[in-house]
Design a protein that fits this description.
Layout (H helix, E strand, L loop, with lengths): L6 H14 L2 E9 L10 E3 L3 E14 L4 E11 L6 E3 L2 E6 L6 H8 L18 E4 L3 E5 L3 E6 L6 E5 L8 E5 L12 E6 L2 E12 L9 E3 L5
Parallel strand pairs: 7-13, 8-14
Antiparallel strand pairs: 1-2, 1-3, 3-4, 4-5, 4-6, 8-11, 9-10, 9-12, 12-13
Amino acid sequence: MTQMMPLTLAVLLFAAPCFAQTPVALVEDVRGNSVGLEFMDYVASGKVIRLRPNDMLVLSYLNSCWSERIVGGTVTIGLEQSEVQGGKVTRTKVACNAAQFDLNSKQSIQSAGTVFRGAGEVPSLTLYGLSPVVEAAGGTALLIVRLDRANEYHVATLPKKKGRPRSVLDLATVNKVLTPGGTYRASIGSRQIEFKVSPNAKPGRTSVIGRLLRFPPAS
């Protein structure tokens, strides 16, 4: 007679694949045909990447804000940094919001209309670059409005990429620059993300994890 699996064990077994696929790092740059990754791919803990001697990979870790430039070798993705064997790794600490994807998810499932905040309250999400990198569905229209001062807004459309439902737009490439210290709301349809720009935010194409606005897929 078949025994019933204990409930706790069953939950762990069925939940394990979900936890295993949680992204911990973001690909910010890649060079070499053997890598099998592209810009803005997410990688999970435990993934093994084998690089040829001249292949180069730049990874940024979401929870630790470590940015790694790796040349050659075997790379094993960890929770906060990579283990690299037979290659060279250079690590740099960058300004970013640890676990910013959780913040974005919570802030971007607002209903249509204004997100009300208490007097003097500022958003939890801070960007450390003056030109955000926006990730959302391709072909969608983006509106960024400044909240703490009138008459500043920015509009753009995310490009469509064949074979990929998600798209990325680096506002630095289209000369969209926000104001240091400003508070903003980014909207795609009824989904919104409120954020502030660090007074020390840098211009140009700085590290993606320090200026990323990620809109989860519409439910």
